[in-house]
Design goal:
Elements: H1 23-31, H2 34-44, H3 54-73, H4 76-88, H5 96-112, H6 122-134, H7 163-173, H8 181-200, H9 207-215, E1 229-233, H10 237-271, H11 273-276, H12 284-294, H13 301-324, H14 328-340, H15 351-375, H16 380-402, H17 409-419, H18 422-433, H19 439-446, H20 450-467, H21 481-488, H22 494-517, H23 525-536, H24 538-541, H25 549-562, E2 567-569, E3 574-578
Protein name: (3S,6E)-nerolidol synthase
Domain Terpene synthase N-terminal: 52-214
Cofactor: Mg(2+)
Length: 579
Amino acid sequence: MAISYSSFGFSNQISFSPNKPNHDYWSRCRSKTHFTIVFNETINNLPENLKLKESVKVRHGEVVEKVKRALMMSNAEECLSMVDSIQRLGIEHHFEDEIAATIENKYLQTQRSNEYHRRQKLSRVALQFRLLRQQGYYAPTDVFDEYRNTKGELKHTLLYEDIDELIALFEASQLRIPGEYFLDEAEEFSRQYLWSIASRFHDHPQAKSIQHTLRFPIHRTLPRFIPQTLQLFGNAPWTTSLQQLSQIDTQLVNSLHLKEILQVSKWWKDLGLAKELKFVRDEAIKWYMWPMACLSGPRFSQERVDLTKPLSLIYIVDDIFDCYGGSIHELTLFTHAVERWDLAAMEELPNCMKVCFKALYEVTNEFALKTYIKHGLNPISTLVKSWVKLFNAFLEEAKWFASGNLPSAEEYLKIGRVSTGVHVILVHAFFSMGQGLTNHNVTLMNEFPTIISTLSTILRLCDDLEGHNESNKDDTSDGSYIKCYIKDHSGISIEETRKHISHRISEEWKRLNQELLAPENQLPSSFVRMCFNAARMVPLMYSYDGDSPSKLEEHVKSLLYNGANLQATPPQDHATVVA
C-alpha cells in the first residue's frame, strides 16, 4: 500500500493493490532479512555459558561505590562535571539517587540566588542549565541575560574567543521549549559558527570535537550507540574510576544483552510466524534493538524481552496490510476481529490473518496476565484499545491509497502518528515497567497523551523525510507526508518541503522537551526517559547521513561484542575520553 508504515521504526513506502499480492514489496520484505541471518549465525556460535567471572561483578561493585564516594566528597562544580561525564558514558542508572541529589542541590542554590551565574563562564552556566532541564527542573533562560544585548539578542562578540563556550551554548540550546526565541537564535548562531570553523580549519585542534558535537548533540544521543567525547575534570582521581567503570559495565551489559537476545530468538522461533507466513519479515533481533536502547539497566532486563513481543507483532500486522494484498473487505474483517477480541471472530479471515490474530490474542493476554501478577493491575482493556487504534489507522490508510487519492498532509499525519505503532509499544511499556500505575495515568494511556503524540510525530516525519526516494518523486501513488504536503502546496519544491519537515521535527523536539518540564506531567520519570530514548534512537533507525542497515548492524555488533574503547589524551587541564 502507498503509505509509510514505520511501525515504530522502519519505512515501508510501497504501492498497494487491494486485489492481488504485492509481489514487488514481497520481494523487498524478503530482501531485508540479511540483518537477521547474520545475527542468527552469530547466535548459533555463541557459547552456552555466558556467565561472567564473579570477580568482574565484584570489581564492578567496588568501582561503583568508589565513584559514589567521589560524588559525595566533591565540591558543587566538580559534582556537575561528574554527573555530565557519567551521563555521557551511559552509566547513570547506577547513580540515580546521587545524581538526583546533586541536581536538586544545584536547583535549590539557583532558587536562593539569582547572581550565581554572573560569576561564572558561559560554559559553566550552560552546563548547569542543561543538567537542570535534563533532570526535569525548569531553568529559566534569564541565566543567559549577561550574554544578551539591550534588544535581548545574543552578544556575538562575546563568543568568538572561546570555542568551548559556543559548544556549551549549542548543547544547552537543545533543551529549549516553544517560545524561547533567544535559545533559537543561540542554537542557529552557534551551529553556523561552529560549522564554519570545522569546515574551514580542518587542522584546528578542536575540529573533530566540533564535528562530533554538531552531529551528535548530547540531549539527542544514545551514548552507548554513539562515541562520546568527554571533557573530564582536571586530574581528579574519579576520571580514572569512571574509565574503569565504563569498561567493566560494558562487559556486564554485553553479557546481559546476549542472554536477552537468546531469549528473544527462542521465543520468535517457537512462535513460528516467520515459518508460516513466508511474506513477513523475520527480524526479531532488529526489533529487540528498540527496547534494548530505550530501557537501560539490569532491572529492566525482562521488560526488554517482553516488549520485543508486541513490537514484533506490529511488524507482522504491518506486513499483512502491506505485503499480503488482501481486499479492503478482508482487512476490515481483520480489524473487526481485533475490536471483538474473540477467537471466534477469526473464522471468516484468510489463513494468514487467522494465524496472526491468534498470536496477537495469546501474546497480549499473556502480557496482561504477567502484569497483573507483578503489579496487581489487569491492563487488558487498555492494551486492546491500543491495538484497535493501530488496526483502524492501518485500515484508514489502506482505504486512502486503494482509492488512489492522497489525503491532505494534516489528515495523513493525524493517522500516521497512530500507524507508527508508538502508542501500542509505549502503553505496553508503561504497564510492564509498573511505575506510576494510578487511575489518572491509566486513563491517560487509554487516550493519546502529548508525550506519545509528539514522539509519534517525530518518528513519522523522520521516517518520511529519510525514506523518500528521489527516483519516485513524481509517483503520487507512493504516499508520504512529503507527497501529501506537495499536493497541498502547488509549486513547492522537494527541497522546500524537506526544509519544512526538518523545521517541524525541530519544533516537535521543543514540545517533547516541554513534557520533560511540565509540572502537571504525572507520568513516572523512567517512562519519560524511555520516550526520549526512543526519539534519540531515530538517527540510527532512519539511516541518517546515508547510513544503511548494515551500518546499524555494525553499531549493534560493537555494542554487544566489542565493548567500549576508552582512550585518554590529557591536555593541560582536562582529559578527553572517547567512549
